[in-house]
TrEMBL record:
Family assignment from sequence similarity: Belongs to the acetyltransferase family. RimI subfamily.
Protein name stated in the entry: [Ribosomal protein bS18]-alanine N-acetyltransferase
UniProt catalytic activity: N-terminal L-alanyl-[ribosomal protein bS18] + acetyl-CoA = N-terminal N(alpha)-acetyl-L-alanyl-[ribosomal protein bS18] + CoA + H(+)
Lineage: Bacteria, Bacillati, Bacillota, Bacilli, Lactobacillales
Species, as recorded: Enterococcus canis
Keyword Hydrolase: no
Length: 146
């Protein structure tokens, strides 16, 4: 385990903790484990040399699952989420045919962002989220439908 991975895991947790009203969906140790996984990838948006948002995803063959999108509250509704998705689309343009993600049913802003970028709701997971208990909506994007 590298010290910079520990520091990054701590920072990702802190950003997530601030970004979500319910608190971070992952613990710091989950970020650390993910950072050490060969199929995990992280994208960042910075302002004044400070990370203000990140997107993480798992890549397996020609499928990707977006596992986290978090933007500091001071930078929400300023295009950071869109910039992260555009980075993701650019980075995976050649290799990824399908993209999956899940979002809280109450997170309407995120749902609008995903729908604007071609994602469609395909399923619902009852009582998936804790703190508070809430359903997750599963979204899918088929490349070529962006």
């Amino acid at each position: 385990m590298k010290k910079n991975e520990q520091q990054l895991a701590k920072l990702l947790f802190e950003i997530s903790e601030q970004a979500y009203p319910e608190g971070a969906p992952w613990h710091e140790r989950q970020f650390l484990a993910d950072l050490q996984t060969p199929t995990a990838h992280y994208l960042f948006v910075t302002r004044d040399s400070k990370i203000v948002g990140f997107l993480s995803y798992q890549l397996v063959l020609d499928e990707a699952e977006i596992t986290n999108v978090a933007v500091l509250p001071t930078h929400q509704k300023l295009g950071v989420g869109q910039a992260l998705l555009e980075q993701f689309f650019d980075e995976t343009a050649v290799t990824v045919k399908e993209v999956f993600l899940e979002v809280r049913k109450s997170n309407l802003a995120a749902q609008r962002l995903y729908q604007k970028n071609g994602f469609v709701e395909i399923a619902q997971r009852r009582n998936y989220y804790q703190r508070p208990l809430e359903d997750a909506l599963i979204f899918k994007l088929k490349r070529g439908e962006i």
